Amino acid sequence: MNWIKLTIYIGLAYCWQTHQLKAGMGQAQSHSHFLSHWTSAVIRRIEATQGPFADAEAIRHARTASNFEHFVQRRAEQLAQQHQFDQGIRHVTMLLRVSYIALLLFAGLSGVGLAISLTPQQAGAVSVVEAIVMLIVVNGLFIVLWGIANLVGNRASSPLGWGFHHLLSKLRNPVHVNAALGLSQLIQQQRLIRPGLGTIAHSMWLTLLSAAWMTLFVRFVVADYQFSWPTTLLSEQHIQMLVATLHTVPAWFGLSAPNIEQGGSFNPQQTAWWLLTCVLLYAVAPRILCWLGCKLWLRQRVGTLTINPTLPGYSELLPAFEQRQVRVVDPAPAELHMQASSQRKSQPSTQAVNSTVALVYYLDWPEDDYANFRHAWQQQPTAVHCELVNSGAQRQHALNILTQGPNRPLLVVVNARLSPERGSLRFIQSLTKQGASSRQLHIALVNARPETGSQRTEMWREYLTQHVPTPLHIESFQVVDNNWVATVTELNAHWS
């Protein structure tokens, strides 16, 4: 029959469109692309509000990035793994996925209940006007309102948006909260709210209408129903006009309109096919088109996600990225031997360190600040051996140096501008176990940017007291007006 052909055509078109969307755009706008931006947004938000992480290891992991966006994403992925924010993102993803499935189940059950209420077996006849109003008119009205809201509205506001924020506000774990707030900021800044909520809303309506249509079809098959137009306001001429108007699109597919018999009744079989076709064409098909449009809209927005380098938390990473952009040009073959020899002489070696010279370890400092410190120490009367301690290999190298002279003085200069990190705390614990007794081990909390305040310094004091059982000599210093020599002079005076 014609209505069966129509159903097959719409189903095939829907499957083909979905397949084309996944095949043509799935790779370029994949879930991993959005996940990378989500992770970056979480790290950016935390660093913008609580200060930067100790990211020396993450910077080295991201040094091969071809552009600033990839650099930020690789660094964020490394920090998320270190601080378990990736677990928070997975938890929020699972929570949203379960909530979405629950909404679809609720919509499907609502569609089944609506169809059952329209076709009660105890009633003498099915009210056609009620079925048209509940399944077609209400649906069309909500589509029109959604379109107007997207055209004239400045901000997206809907029960789904309120429910999304209410759901995220119930989180209590700090890791989960940070992941949820990072997601909220990302979808607001990248304008993903309207296409995302539109996709969810249309999928719910599509589920409701599809469930209602299938329930109607099954009940029309298994039971014998009569149809009528119970109204005291519309005359038979009005009924014929309404049927003719609704029959405009079904007529394109060769379907026949129901014949209105004397007394306001319809031919049952013909009316059932006509009602199912109208619901399919005027309710289900428009929702499929709206859902596909929002899906395309959302995929387009996700595919064009970018990192804004001017945002707080990203702008501070530009110097680190630019330093990693310096490229090394291979020397001429005749120069290779001389360059390799000079590199071997300049490389730090555990065997070359004087076992009586005092040690100064710079923990989690950028290379340019470390160079300023070394230059300032050269102007001091005290001979010291400086080491930059950022990576795991550098930490092991620093511990190996202690084995040569366990009684030498040791000063650990901590970059107090960064938040305490577990690897740095474990390194200080290892120093106390490698012969650096409490009398010899001194901790200098140096803030190279006094404008950030003393909050981070006090945090370091608290964490060192909690995680390092051995009593430590802890002092706080600040680099004022980039005067590194004055800072080192003050360090030397307190240390000596």
Which descriptors would you attach to this protein?
496 residues, alpha/beta, five-stranded parallel β-sheet, two-stranded parallel ribbon, disordered N terminus
Strand order of the largest sheet: 4-3-5-6-7
The overall strand count is: 7
Helix % is: 55-70%
Structural class, please?
alpha/beta
Task: Please specify the SSE layout and strand pairing.
Blueprint: H1 2-25, H2 31-50, H3 56-61, H4 68-82, H5 85-118, E1 126-127, H6 128-152, H7 159-169, H8 174-189, H9 193-222, E2 227-228, H10 236-246, H11 248-252, H12 268-303, H13 318-324, H14 333-346, E3 358-363, H15 367-377, E4 384-389, H16 392-402, E5 410-415, H17 422-433, E6 441-447, H18 455-467, E7 473-478, H19 484-495
Parallel strand pairs: 1-2, 3-4, 3-5, 5-6, 6-7
Helix pairs in contact: 1-12, 2-4, 2-8, 5-8, 5-9, 6-9, 6-12, 9-12, 15-19
Word description of this protein:
With 496 residues, the protein is α/β, with parallel strands linked by helices. The protein is 63% helix and 7% strand. A five-stranded parallel beta sheet has the order 4-3-5-6-7, with helices on both faces. The chain has a two-stranded parallel sheet with strand order 1-2. β6, α18 (455-467) and β7 (473-478) form a beta-alpha-beta unit. α6 runs antiparallel to α9 (193-222). The longest helix is centred in the middle third of the chain and has 36 residues, at 268-303. It is rod-shaped.
